[in-house]
Amino acid sequence: MSPPSGRSAFCSSWSTRFGSCVVTRIWAGEKVGLFVAGETGLARRYESFVKPLARLSHVSYADTLPRSEAPVKVVEHFQLMLDVKVDVAAERERIVKEITRVEGEIAKASTRLANASFVDRAPAQIVAQERERLADFLPRSKSSSRSSSGYRRSPAEPGPTSVAG
After folding, report:
1. 157 falls in which pLDDT band (50, 70, 90)?
2. Distance between alpha carbon 56 and the CA centroid of its chain, in Å?
3. DSSP letter assigned to residue 45
4. Structure-model confidence comparison of residues 124 and 152, the more confident one
5. Contact predicate 6/27, CB 8 Å
6. Whether the Cβ atoms of residue 61 and residue 85 lie closer than 8 Å to each other
7. Residue 83: phi, psi to the nearest 5?
8. How do beta strands 162-164 and 72-75 pair?
9. In the chain, where are the structural domains located?
10. What is the DSSP letter of 54?
11. What DSSP state is assigned to residue 52?
12. Dihedral angle sign, alpha carbons of residues 61, 67, 68, 72
């Protein structure tokens, strides 16, 4: 997928307490819709401010969100979902690649730290840096594994994928 002429691409991410979940490719300047469900009073009050800042084409309010593979962000007493299409197979593939990369980094750091010669000979700053890398990668591994389980395995399974925040 290449950007339309004269536009640069950026990857829109939906922040969650589990890390980041890439929704889809959204081109710079492209506007997308937003679905809001639940107690929408607060969202309705701030719509005129949020809509231009978030580059939303429209905001739709409903009692329940439409069925979609798009992630749902729970905020206070309402749910938010971008009106975007998610390529589940591509997203699952991206997550598997990320899990593989993170597991490789964990193995590399663990091997270095398990090597008594490395720990004894390397400067304390380098050993501390490896311990910090390992500590940073462990939660990412758990987050990526949790993210991969959120994507449906077959079209017959229920959706949408919901992420509490």
Report:
1. very low
2. 19
3. H
4. 124
5. no
6. no
7. -90, 75
8. parallel
9. 9-83, 88-152
10. T
11. H
12. positive
Count of other CB atoms within 10 angstroms of residue 25? 16
Both structure tokens of 139: 């939660």
Q: Is the pLDDT of residue 59 over 50?
A: yes
In SS3 terms, 72-138 reads as EEEECCEEEEEECCCCHHHHHHHHHHHHHHHHHHHHHHHHHHHCHHHHHHCCHHHHHHHHHHHHHHH
In the three-class reduction of DSSP (H, G, I as helix; E, B as strand; rest coil), residue 165 is classed as coil
Q: How far apart are CA 20 and CA 96, in angstroms?
A: 14
Closest CA to 22 of 32, 14, 30: 14
pLDDT interval class at 4 (50, 70, 90): very low
pLDDT value of position 144:
62
Supply the pTM of this predicted model.
0.49
CATH of 9-83, one of 3.40.50.300, 3.90.1310.10, 3.30.1170.10, 3.40.50.150: 3.30.1170.10
The answer on pLDDT for 129 being more than 90 is yes
Tokens at 120, concatenated: 């004894």
Q: Is 15 exposed, middle or buried (0-12, 13-18, 19+ CB in 10 A)?
A: exposed
